[in-house]
Specification:
single chain; mainly alpha; Arc Repressor Mutant, subunit A; Tetracycline Repressor, domain 2; 2 domains
Length: 196
């Protein structure tokens, strides 16, 4: 694998700062000037790497979507036992998502899908990839004898619908006990779909 170019490294650094500023200021209130202030540089440097704010937003969305896809990765390994399979399924219904991506920035970017076809395509591709990952995980679990279900693609889609709906709804709940109770309920419904 080749080394990353300075341009690629610098662009990623700018996008990470953009993400952090968007967390504190809100995406709609984040400007190139505010990002430059945080980086302690001239705004022209940011414009050198991202010619327009739209281009910067595309970089931010790529960064968010890359982080989002890590939800299907166990912290320590690939799935090699029934216990690790169960751990991954349980992990999908935890606050780990919140550690990966800030809800406010994510949903602000998601709202742009209604105005921008390029952003809509990026989100669609991500969700298709996540669904394929879940199908593969379930197929592998079945092959290894950890799971005994038919119509895996259909069940994976239903599981994913519960998962996505859970995170959308749970983002509205501030009470920790209510959040935990609802999360456990969604987890049980999703697990029943795949018969575990």
């Amino acid at each position: 694998m080749g080394r990353k170019s300075i341009k690629e490294i610098r662009r990623k650094e700018i996008v990470k700062v953009f993400y952090n500023v968007a967390i504190s200021e809100g995406l709609e209130n984040t400007s190139i000037a505010k990002i430059a202030l945080e980086l302690d540089c001239n705004p022209s440097l940011i414009i050198h790497y991202f010619e327009t704010k739209d281009e910067l937003i595309y970089g931010l969305i790529d960064y968010i979507l890359e982080r989002y896809s890590n939800i299907f990765v166990l912290d320590n390994s690939e799935i090699s036992s029934k216990e690790e399979f169960a751990e991954l399924i349980d992990q999908l219904f935890t606050r780990k998502w919140n550690e990966l991506i800030d809800d406010g920035v994510f949903y602000s970017c998601y709202a742009l899908t209604f105005k921008n076809d390029k952003i809509k395509r990026k989100f669609k591709v991500l969700h298709q990839q996540l669904r394929r990952k879940l199908i593969k995980i379930l197929q592998d679990a079945k092959m290894m004898g950890y799971l005994d279900i038919e119509r895996i693609e259909h069940k994976a889609e239903l599981f994913f619908i519960v998962l996505e709906g859970a995170y959308y709804y749970l983002s509205l709940i501030d009470d920790k006990q209510e959040y935990s109770d609802q999360m456990n309920s969604f987890r049980m419904h999703a697990k029943s779909i795949i018969s575990i």
